[in-house]
């Protein structure tokens, strides 16, 4: 099977009500890596992730994968900052993507049990998902994304509402997934988290991609004054 990457954005622009939210932007995401998307509030991080997942209409330029878009999108998964929680059990929330793909309920639930064990939620399987804590909900959302074995996992600030321990647990799951070959692209505000996870950093400012830089280089010797100010914790003009 042909891999879906590289993913290429070529002159891509996203507009709403006449306002340019993103771009024009050129970007190639190589097959390997843990890409962290950084930038000040409103820089366009969520918009970029949604663009990469086909959730934003591209007004200019092209967005391509190594396979046709409809196929590529089925082989990606997205985790939101606030997890989507369906009014079902935890087990059925995690099994859901597989039932959508035509697996029997029994097969889907068996796979879901496996992923709940990976994320440490086995005991909550029969619980209503709405009763989970914030950290548990995010682990459930991660299991629901991982169950489809995506080639690319996109995450938008998945730990923004979590405490230190839950954050570290999610990070450890992501590092394991990455070690097992998953391509990850994730937005975060947390500089410590970015340093712990990133192999490369995309730095956005005012909808423009100012840097795509290997992580150590980005943090030690950022190329643009905006990134320098951002890393120093200054206001980015
Ligand atoms: N639905 C929308 N309609 C109009 N403008 C929008 C919409 N969604 C986002 N924007 C604008 O697009 C720009 C980029 O927003 P986006 O959410 O992608 O930034 P971000 O870097 O993820 O921000 P944050 O760090 O605050 O989450 C911002 O100026 C925002 O106000």
From TrEMBL:
Q: Which SUPFAM superfamilies match?
A: P-loop containing nucleoside triphosphate hydrolases
Q: Does the keyword ATP-binding apply?
A: yes
Q: Which domain of life is it from?
A: Bacteria
Gene Ontology terms, MF aspect = ATP binding
Task: Write down the SMART domains for this protein, in alphabetical order.
Answer: AAA
Q: Which UniProt keywords apply?
A: ATP-binding, Nucleotide-binding
Task: Note the InterPro entries from the entry.
Answer: AAA+_ATPase, ABC_transporter-like_ATP-bd, ABC_transporter-like_CS, ABC_transpr_LolD-like, P-loop_NTPase
Q: Tell me which residues make up the ABC transporter domain.
A: 7-231
UniProt keyword Transmembrane present? no
User: PROSITE patterns, per this entry?
Assistant: ABC_TRANSPORTER_1, ABC_TRANSPORTER_2
Q: Which named protein is this?
A: ATP-binding cassette domain-containing protein
Origin organism is Cognatishimia coralii
